[in-house]
Amino acid sequence: MIAAGLVMLISVAGAVVAVSVKNIVHAIFGLGIALGGLALAFLLLSTPFVAAMQVLIYIGGITIAMIFAVMLSSTGKHEPGEGARRRVLAGIVSIVFFIAMAWVVVGSDFGPLMELAPEDMESAWSVQAIGRALLNDFNVAFELLSVVLLVAIVGAISIASRHDEGEDPAINEEGGA
Amino acid sequence: MPRTLLDIFGNPFIATGVGIGAVMTVLSINVLFCIWFERKVSAWIQRRLGPMEVGPQGTLQTVADMVKLLGKQLLTPAGIDKPLYHLAPLIIFAPVVASASLLPFSKSVALSDLNIGLILVFMFGGFAVVGIFMAGWGSNNKYALLGAMRSVAQNISYEVPLLLSALSVVLMVGAQGGGQIEIGDEVIQLNGLNLSHITLAQTSGLWFIVFQPIAAVIFFIAILAETNRAPFDLPEAESELIAGFHTEYSGMRFGLFFFGEYSNMFIGAMLATVLFLGGWDGPLLPGPVWFFFKSYLLIFVMMWVRWTFPRLRFDQLMAFCWAVLTPLAIVNILVTAFALKVVNG
């Protein structure tokens, strides 16, 4: 219980840092802390593989990619604060999203997973089990996700190469990197 | 199967304490040795003597340097991003200790024996990127920031061929003898992500470097890039960036970066030993001797490469990763999977 509370505290603290500080690089590292807290939560739930993937992808990948996006798009200095109207809108969107997610999670039937003893949890979420589930039961969803990623990559390349006829050749030289 | 510290001590807290102590001791000795060895190797290659003054053949030179670093003033530059600047050495240092504890150096004893050991080593390696960026950003120095950006771009790019080449070994382990191996009267179901299982799969047959020479070469090159070693040492290219991301660190803070760097080299060499060179497997001598001998042989090759090849340009570095290594690694995985399917039916 204490461990679960501590993990929640870490995640929430990181999330609060991510949305409240003015310095955008600090905000990204706050998000990294929140995501690391989630990895600890997966560890507490006896799913070390999912926890390792959470760190590998979200802290090692997504956080770093966000830093790159910030570095390439702005000076890194904090932006002027949003107006009250945008804050209210953002609040409404977040609350609606939270209610929808909570509704889905509470309403879902996790079936046999709920009855598993903690010591069986690790084999239920082992690499082999996840691999089988992805390539058998959820194959269509898995392939659809890869199509989404492919479209995203093609889109990113087409946006990046649009500068080709543009007036700033200096950007182009960095395009390959 | 190796007995872990937890099996020996029974108490997780004592086991963790002993494990951390052992890893820190081995890593410290490794750093002291590697720095001396690097200076000696570079000297031999350039027909010099290298350090000769402190101790026989200069063996105690690094100890003297360490004492000097400890005594130095810790300069803190103006205008730094305080939390990031101070956290960075720790973020680089701590995961190194954790991932060193995962590697199986002997048949009978291991610090830990986890089913996802290979993934965990890569996971801890991912933290280094975050630490390097924190150092570069926090230092309020344009050279540090440039070095950090180069390093991060290089690290996340070379992670792709690194993981892909390791994956072909994982495939091989899963297919070895139908995925099972007999040791004494015990039958073990092999798990391709467990580092001691990867070694066990090689003790019964040939080492994986025989079956996977291309993956082994790709892995070694990617390790050189991941540890920021020459010819991929652009992040700290002295002649253009002074020292890259750790330009603004002095005294023992700089020492921690150095510690992390040489330990990462050691971990990379040990991981390559486990994946391709059969780990502790070898005739006559005990397992750990073989394990560390192979690791240090790889470290020697890393140093040899450093003093032989000139530094690449950044676009050459990126093109080499994305246009040569990555497609080659993907083709290698496909061929491996196809061959295993044909052989095992």
Low-pLDDT ranges of chain B: none
Distance between the termini of chain A: 46 Å
Instruction: Assign the CATH architecture of the domain at 1-81 in chain A.
Output: Up-down Bundle
Based on CA atoms alone, the radius of gyration of chain A comes out at 20 Å
Structural class of chain A, by secondary structure, is: mainly alpha
The number of strands of chain A is 0
Structural class by secondary-structure content of chain B:
mainly alpha
The chain pair forming the largest interface, with residue counts per chain, is:
A-B, 25 and 29 residues
What's the total number of strands of chain B? 4
Total of helices of chain A: 9
The shape of chain B is: globular
**How far apart, in Å, are the first and last alpha carbons of chain B?**
29 Å
Give the SSE order of chain B as H and E letters: EHHHHEHHEEHHHHHHH
Helical residues, percent of chain A: over 70%
Radius of gyration of chain B: 21 Å
What does this structure look like?
The complex is a heterodimer of chains A (177) and B (345). The C terminus of chain A is likely disordered. Chain A is globular. By secondary structure, chain A is mostly helical. Chain A contains nine helices and no strands. Chain B has one domain. Chain B has 13 helices and four strands. Chain B has a two-stranded parallel ribbon. In chain B, strands 3-4 form a two-stranded antiparallel ribbon. In chain B, helix 2 packs across helix 11, helix 6 runs parallel beside helix 13 and helix 9 packs antiparallel against helix 11. The longest helix of chain B has 34 residues. Classes of the chains: A mainly alpha (177), B mainly alpha (345). At the A-B interface, helix 2 and helix 3 of A face helix 5, helix 6 and helix 13 of B.
Give me the secondary-structure topology:
The complex is a heterodimer of chains A (177) and B (345).
Chain A: H1 2-20, H2 24-44, H3 48-73, H4 84-107, H5 112-115, H6 118-124, H7 127-135, H8 139-160, H9 169-175
Helix pairs in contact in A: 1-2, 2-3
Chain B: E1 3-4, H1 5-9, H2 12-45, H3 61-71, H4 82-100, E2 109-110, H5 117-138, H6 142-175, E3 180-183, E4 186-189, H7 195-203, H8 208-211, H9 213-226, H10 238-241, H11 251-276, H12 287-306, H13 314-344
Helix pairs in contact in B: 2-11, 2-12, 3-11, 4-5, 4-11, 5-6, 6-9, 6-13, 9-11, 9-13, 11-12
